[in-house]
Amino acid sequence: MKTLVTGATGFLGAAVVRSLLSKKFDVRVMARQSSVLSNITGLAVDRVEADLQDEKSLDQALLGCQALFHVAADYRLWVPKPKEMYQTNVLGTKNLMSAALRAGVSKIVYTSSVAVLGKCNGSIPADEDTPVKFQDMIGHYKKSKFLAEEEVRKMIRNNGLPAVIVNPSTPIGPRDIKPTPTGKIIIDFLNGKMPAYVDTGLNIVHVDDCALGHILAMRNGEIGERYILGGEDMSLKNILEALSSITSKKVPTLHLPHNSVIPIAYLSELIARLFGSEPMITLDAVRMSKRNMFFSSEKAKSKIGYIPGPSHKAFIDAVEWFHKRGYVKVGLSSK
User: Fold this and answer.
1) 254-255 and 226-229: which strand pairing?
2) Is 246 inside a domain boundary?
3) Are 182 and 240 in contact, with CB atoms under 8 Å apart?
4) Of 21, 41, 128, 138, which is the most exposed, with the fewest CB atoms less than 10 Å away?
5) Which CATH number do you get for residue 74?
6) Would you say 96 and 52 are in contact if contact means Cβ atoms under 8 Å apart?
7) For residue 209, is it within any domain?
8) What pLDDT was estimated at residue 11?
9) What are 266-275's contacts with CB under 8 Å, separation 24+?
10) How far is CA 9 from CA 17, 29, 100, in A?
11) 3-state SS string for the chain
12) Count of domains for the chain
């Protein structure tokens, strides 16, 4: 089956490509001229240059394709120019879905995010049906992904778009080249740049398990349905303890209340704007951290056969990859 993958040069997209190739799919990847290709170098894929803002290039990219995985997204918590993010995540998604309809693509997997879902209630994880509204979205990334998923849903209802929606939680593992915000947490901890932590929680999944979930959604997912592709709910402290257990780094003992971090975030963003750099911490990140981001993948397990592995392997693979490529000086311990 000729299959187009967007975002193939990125972290999750590259894992999806590898999973597709292992299942003998005929893979075409879409990349911009400026894309860094290291994540797909040496893979048996057909590469086409195209841009989500260029509808003619999308028509060419989809020519002859029966399936589409739209994994590409602008994933940042620091967004000095928000318009760019909305153009990529919202308008770009709409352009690609329209092109898929014109091309007669048989089935689509759209990669959304758990960022658009409702919040967990205490210790009870959120699921696909947890109530949520646009006003609940914190930051431009969440807002843009919420609007993008709404565009996909609208086209499913009104235009017969043959799309399944997946909502990955927090993937970690190899080939996180940017890195993602979560990858940066790992890097900062291992490089000794995390002197303290706050009470928050994430749902951790190995990027390869999440990628396989995409293939299962293509094969077994019902058009119009959404499936959370998650793994293990962990507090930030538990995450740092897991990293500590496989390396020589010690978990910071200083625990900070959320409100005490807000002035630091304000100052960090001010410095970033003045010097054109990345802030150490953002206001949106602090605001999001006030609630645990815990999610249930039970629907994906029961409906499409999704089976995520232990988070321990994800941490090992992430640390090993970051260490081998010089992101961190600390590698896996020998104990």
Assistant:
1) unpaired
2) no
3) no
4) 41
5) 3.40.50.720
6) yes
7) yes
8) 97
9) 269/78, 272/78, 272/80, 273/80
10) 9, 8, 20
11) CEEEEECCCCHHHHHHHHHHHHCCCEEEEEECCCCCCCCCCCCCCEEEECCCCCHHHHHHHCCCCCEEEECCCCCCCCCCCHHHHHHHHHHHHHHHHHHHHHHCCCEEEEECCHHHCCCCECCECECCCCCCCHHHCCHHHHHHHHHHHHHHHHHHHHHCCCEEEEEECEEECCCCCCCCHHHHHHHHHHCCCCCEECCCEEEEEEHHHHHHHHHHHHHHCCCCCEEEECCEEEEHHHHHHHHHHHCCCCCCCEECCHHHHHHHHHHHHHHHHHHCCCCCCCHHHHHHCCCCCCECCHHHHHHHCCCCCCHHHHHHHHHHHHHHCCCCCCCCCCC
12) 1
Contacts with 319 (C-beta within 8 Å, 6 or more apart), sequence order: 186, 190, 243, 246, 247, 328, 330, 331, 332
For 168-220, write each residue's pLDDT tens digit: 999 999 999 999 999 999 999 999 999 989 999 999 999 999 999 999 999 99
Nearest to 219 by CA among 7, 20, 5, 64: 20
pTM of the complete model:
0.94
With respect to residue 230, please indicate whether it lies within any of the assigned structural domains: yes
Looking at this protein, which amino acid is placed at residue 259? N
Examine residue 18 and state whether it is found in any structural domain, yes or no: yes
The 10 Å CB-count burial string (b at 16+, else e) for 233-262 is bbebbbbbebbbebbebebbeeeeeeeebe
320: Cα separation from own chain's centroid: 20
> Distance of CA 45 to CAs 48, 67, 159, 184, 202, Å?
10, 15, 30, 29, 33
Are residues 9 and 35 in contact, defined by beta-carbon separation less than 8 angstroms? yes
| Residue among 169, 146, 142, 167 at smallest CA distance from 93 | 146
Q: CA 190 to CA 55: how far, in whole Å?
A: 43
pLDDT for residue 335:
56
Contact 73, 87 (CB under 8 A): no
Domain range for 64 is: 2-177+204-234+293-309
